[in-house]
Amino acid sequence: MISVKFNSRRSEHTENGNVTTVSWIGTKEEITEFSREEIPGQASNSDGTLDSVSVYQEGPNIWVCERRYTTDPDGNSFEKPNQVYGKKSAQLSCSMLSLPIEGKKGYRKKWNYYLMAAPGVSAVPGWWETATYDSSELVGADAQKYAWCKSLSEAPVDSKGRWQKLKSPQKPGVDSYDLATYSITETAKFKSARAAGRMIGNIINQIGKPTEDFGMTPSGYNWKCDGASVSYNGKAWYATITWTRSGDNKGWDTDLYQ
């Protein structure tokens, strides 16, 4: 019957974390079976994450299984990437999204639009400074005197002639801005190309969620699959999926992506 070896528990504290080693004794058959019950990197308990397992003979009929557990300096178990066939491991990184400038917080219409005025009008209206995308629609008397245009060629023409430029864009040519967001790459290994292909099939440009999101999905945000590949490294086939988080808490537009 397997039992913990007397005086076998050892603890070590290093700058990288804590290491605990425990040994069990039994017959060769018992120890061999016991050594296969937990997988290094996947199994964990109060001592930490199982880092390694070793088996050796100590006497004619006495065999030993030594398990080495590790934690971080705060005593937390390490979460290691999964290397079991078909199981996904994940990597968090950052990527850049190019978004319409009209959606930027604090956007002003004057940034990228000309303000045009009817012939004979020269006064700059007070709302030119503060008009946003939602508040820039011109109504009433103002609609007869002013117009927003993306280019000078769009200037209105009436019976008095072509309207003139009253104000130029404050940020000419800037129609988008870069936003850093999170991306997650999921990888899993497979024994065949067909099995790897099934993992990435029919998800490109679709809204979904990675298996592991690292806690990076605040309320309203969601993920879209922006990349997928299958490769062979000489030993196994690997399928890779890249998820990109939405730029804001409105999420990816479900009218455009399923």
Alpha plus pi helix count? 3
Query: How many β strands by DSSP?
Result: 16
SSE pattern? EEEHEEEEEHEEEEEHEEE
Span between termini: 57 Å
Stretches where pLDDT is under 50 for at least 5 consecutive residues are: none
The biggest beta sheet is recorded as:
6 strands, antiparallel
Question: What sort of overall outline do the alpha carbons produce when their principal axes are compared?
Answer: elongated
Number of folding domains? 3
Helix coverage percent? under 10%
How many whole angstroms does the radius of gyration measure?
A: 32 Å
Task: Please tell me the overall pLDDT.
Answer: 90
What structural class results from the helix and strand content? mainly beta
User: What is the beta-strand fraction?
Assistant: 35-45%
Main attributes of the structure:
mainly beta, six-stranded antiparallel sheet, 3 helices
Task: Quickly describe the structure.
The protein is mainly beta and 258 residues long. It has helices spanning 28-35, 140-145, 193-200; strands at residues 3-4, 10-14, 17-26, 44-45, 48-59, 62-71, 89-100, 114-117, 146-149, 157-158, 161-162, 164-167, 176-190, 207-208, 223-232, 237-245.
Structure write-up:
The protein is mainly beta and 258 residues long. It has 3 domains: 3-71; 89-95 and 182-245, no CATH class; 109-167, no CATH class. 9% of the residues lie in helices and 41% in strands. Strands 1, 2, 3, 4, 5 and 6 form a 6-stranded antiparallel beta sheet that branches. Strands 7-13-16-15-14 form a 5-stranded antiparallel beta sheet. It has a 3-stranded antiparallel beta sheet with strand order 9-8-12.
